[in-house]
Design brief:
The chain has 116 residues and is mainly alpha-helical. The protein is built from five helices and two strands. It is globular.
């Protein structure tokens, strides 16, 4: 059975829950680590914590419509960019740049997840 991100990265999920709860997130974070350490899962978990309708102390419920939309890459205020082939392409960077200049669709926040 696959371990949840809170089981795989307990220190980081507790740390980010505290930052979300205290409204102390900064504008950007770089999540780095070996393959399989849960970087993308953690990034999505943070996004869920930001947008969750039923967050408890900064911890997302993982069940509400916002959490489900983020999990399914279907939230308009969470932009995910993944390599197209071996790398991120120029067109993807142009798209990111255009999105940086836009405000959130459903809130005043936006989250960008860029996968290596």
């Amino acid at each position: 059975m696959k371990m949840s991100i809170t089981e795989r990265q307990p220190f980081l999920t507790k740390h980010f829950a505290k930052l979300i709860r205290e409204n102390k997130l900064v504008h950007a974070y770089l999540l780095s680590g070996a393959e399989g350490t849960g970087k993308i899962e953690l990034a999505k978990w943070i996004a869920k914590g930001i947008f969750c309708l039923n967050s408890q102390n900064g911890v997302p419920c993982l069940k509400c419509s916002e959490c489900n939309r983020i999990e399914n890459n279907n939230h308009p205020d969470v932009v995910t960019i993944m390599p197209d082939g071996l790398s991120i392409k120029v067109e993807q960077i142009r798209y990111l740049k255009s999105e940086f200049n836009k405000s959130g669709v459903e809130s005043d926040r936006k989250v960008f997840i860029i996968q290596d």
